[in-house]
Model the fold of this input.
Amino acid sequence: MVVVFQLDHISKAFQQTQALSDVSLDIDKGEMVALIGPSGSGKTTLLKLLNAQHMPTSGRLAVDGADIESLSRSSLKQVRQQIAYIPQDLGLVPNLKVFQNILLGKIGSTASWSLIRQFFFPTQAELTAIHSILEDVGIPEKLYQQTSSLSGGQQQRVAVARALYQNAHTILADEPVSAVDPARARSLVTLLSEISAEKNISVIMSIHNTDIATAMFPRIIGLKSGHLAFDTASPTEEAMADLYLIPDQQITEA
Ligand code: ADP
Ligand code: MG
Done:
């Protein structure tokens, strides 16, 4: 197994708020991981540490074996380029065509003049590459379509295609399914599982729907108040209940 992320006693504080406390774990290449826990438990903070948007307050985070705090600006940029981030709203520009949104995946690694050229005059090779990725996600016919004209499920596929075009070894997704119905949520997770298995891409997704997390992810990490509550293939019902208990409810009855 190749370890992609190594977290060694990671803590992250924002002024008075301790967002993460002493989290240690490894994530391997190709792993499919669900991140669950109540609102404010540190899920987004953990994802932002993984793609080096945040630096830890203490502890050590290594990506591909390199301590992120020791990297030069350009090495850090390279690390970030290999990690795709799908935000909750998918981060697509509605009035661009599908291929243009997918080109945006490479924005970090492309000189701006080149990006402008690609945007308006993509070469046949670029279009062929994007078309082939759209085939992988099941919507090859949408290449030239305006993104806002696609259904929500198709737009999820565009967001995944953009991550693939970026050539990412890891896809991070922050509650990308919380605004959609469970059927569509399941179809996105299924798509990401297939992509992860086919291309050996790690997928780390924070997710509200614990049924989907436990049924569809082989590894589930529970966060509670910034602490690692569990990291397991199948959390017990007790562990799940405890994760979502608010402190007041934990006071034992007299
Ligand atoms: P989750 O994604 O699980 O809802 P977050 O990681 O967003 O949790 O937040 C964890 C804690 O850190 C919360 O108390 C939140 O208010 C705090 N927090 C997150 N980001 C910041 C920030 N940039 N500045 C101050 N506090 C923050
Ligand atoms: Mg969050």
